[in-house]
Write a structure and sequence with these properties.
Blueprint (H helix, E strand, L loop, with lengths): L1 H20 L10 E7 L2 E5 L9 E4 L4 E7 L4 E7 L9 E4 L5 E4 L7 E2 L16 E4 L22 H6 L9 E4 L5 H10 L6 E8 L3 H13 L6 E6 L5 H20 L3 E7 L1 H14 L13 H9 L13 E9 L8 H9 L2 E5 L1 H5 L12 E2 L2 H4 L2 H24 L7 H17 L9 H12 L11 H14 L8 H12 L6
Parallel strand pairs: 8-12, 10-14, 10-15, 11-12, 11-13, 13-14
Antiparallel strand pairs: 1-2, 1-6, 2-5, 3-4, 3-6, 4-5, 7-9, 15-16
Helix pairs in contact: 5-6, 7-8, 11-12, 11-13, 13-14, 13-15, 14-15
Length: 495
């Protein structure tokens, strides 16, 4: 009886407080009516003051975002849909904007583009929310890309380097290892104080599960947040997924941290945006994509940058992935993304079929600004190695005709074939920057000459074990590097 009396007293106190602060006045609220619902789109009449990207709250508990405005109706993409949502449901404009919780509590979590957990754990308690759409950092807040971001992949770190704050496109056909490159890069950031965000857009559930399983098994989830909008989710959530991942990374960047964001993949994202635009009766352009698809991806990727020390000194490195068909990089979406990004890693089917993994075509791949961030010692050694490899690629053409070659050309071809074997690398096996330096020095000094191709893996494994025990840094004088790799490989230095 006492408890009941106490409860009643508390309610009366709240009511009295509300009455004390109540002020009579005119209050106007807008109310819309759903005209039709289907395919993740709701058409609504009413709401005369609604604006683009406003959040709409439906009477049944559904949620949507304004995506199109016409004279007679409002087109909204659904972000959450209940079974009770039908024509005639009332709609109100939500007072809150489209935002997502951010912060360190998201590390190790799997969430949807609105921040709701998908890993069976409780909702992360966050005090900070950031809008999904924000202006990119001002020019005066940016710094030049000057620090390397190591992927652990020999071909990339030596020939096509990536810097912190760079936007490097991963492009190629399905099944050539684009996602594997991105996952290897995330795994290689362990212990480097880099926060990673992996965004899965429109992927099959099996792909989502395998990605999470791989990152967890290599302890990469400790510093990674996974944003998932799988193929079965609403198209509106798939559209928002990359912006959600970008907002999470942007918070850490502004706190002075280095971040890495993987968008897997933006070709699917573009198709989703095309689907929504066609359903909303927007005029189609090239390949039926809406005219603003370039702007959508530019707004997203321009937020990746390197901030100067006055603005925290953080960085956001972006690895957008785009799928091509039959190697056609001149298609609409790939060309758009190539023009926005700072370089691309192109994966070739012929190389993949021939057993060269990762199947990166060095001739078609480029890093426009990554060389500025590459360590000077690695840059010097990689430059010498690249000349040998390019020469080998030119000379190899003559071997197809059975032509008799000079001794020097034969030597260059044999040396190039050894190098091709060295550059092969299994997935989920990222390598340290010290090992990259070690094999570069060994190759440039001829320590792999006259080595049979089948012996290359064992030689590299022995070299890696030896370098881990050696007290060497990238700044160690070259003569000490030569002595160390020579002692390991058991060869004399070539003139």
């Amino acid at each position: 009886m006492k408890a009941k009396t106490s409860s009643t007293g508390g309610l009366l106190e709240k009511q009295a407080t509300w009455l004390d602060h109540y002020r009579p006045g005119l209050r106007v609220s807008e109310q819309g009516i759903v005209l039709s619902v289907g395919d993740g789109i709701a058409w609504i009449t009413g709401l005369p003051s609604v604006a683009m990207e406003d959040i709409l709250a439906f009477e049944d508990g559904s949620q949507g975002m304004v995506f199109d405005l016409t004279e007679d109706a409002v087109g909204a993409v659904l972000l959450h849909e209940t079974e009770r949502l039908t024509a005639g449901t009332t709609v109100h404009i939500s007072p809150r904007s489209l935002s997502i919780p951010v912060g360190d509590n998201l590390l190790g979590r799997v969430i949807d583009p609105l921040g709701s957990p998908l890993d069976g754990q409780e909702q992360p308690a966050q005090a900070t929310w950031l809008p999904l759409e924000r202006r990119s950092p001002a020019i005066m807040a940016r710094d030049f890309v000057h620090e390397p971001l190591y992927t652990g992949i020999k071909v990339v770190d030596t020939l096509i380097p990536i810097g912190k704050g760079q936007r490097q496109l991963l492009i190629g056909d399905e099944g050539l290892g684009r996602s594997s490159l991105a996952i290897d890069t995330v795994i290689n950031q362990q212990g480097k104080d880099i926060y990673c965000i992996y965004v899965l857009i429109g992927q099959k559930r099996s792909t989502v599960v395998n990605t999470i399983k791989t990152l967890r098994s290599y302890h990469a989830l400790e510093y990674t947040t996974i944003v998932v909008a799988e193929a079965s989710t609403l198209p509106g959530l798939q559209h928002l997924a990359p912006f959600a991942g970008c907002a999470i990374a942007e918070f850490w960047m502004q706190q002075g941290h280095d971040t890495l964001v993987v968008y897997d993949d933006l070709a699917t994202h573009a198709k989703t945006y095309r689907e929504l635009s066609l359903l909303l009766r927007r005029p189609p352009g090239r390949e039926a994509y809406p005219g603003d698809i370039f702007s959508v991806h530019a707004r997203l990727l321009e937020r990746s940058t390197c901030l100067n020390t006055a603005h925290g000194g953080g960085s956001m490195t972006a690895l957008p992935i785009v799928e091509t068909r039959q190697g056609e990089i001149a298609a609409y979406i790939p060309t758009n993304l190539i023009s926005i990004t700072d370089g691309q890693l192109y994966l070739d089917r012929d190389l993949f079929t021939a057993g060269f993994r990762p199947a990166i075509d060095i001739a078609k791949s480029v890093s426009r600004i990554g060389g500025n961030a590459q360590h000077p010692r690695i840059k010097e050694e990689a430059g010498r190695m690249k000349l040998d490899y390019l020469q080998f690629m030119e000379l190899e053409v003559f071997t197809r005709f059975g032509a008799r070659l000079e001794a020097s050309m034969e030597t260059a071809i044999l040396r190039g074939r050894v190098l091709r074997q060295i550059l092969k690398q299994d997935r989920l096996a990222p390598l340290s920057s010290l090992f990259q330096m070690a094999w570069l020095v060994a190759f440039n000094d001829g320590l792999f000459d006259h080595t049979e191709p089948e012996d290359i893996p064992s030689k590299l494994a022995a070299l890696e074990r030896s370098i881990e025990r050696a007290e060497l840094t990238l700044n160690t004088p070259r003569e000490q590097w030569v002595e160390a790799v020579t002692a390991c490989l058991g060869k004399t230095r070539q003139p």
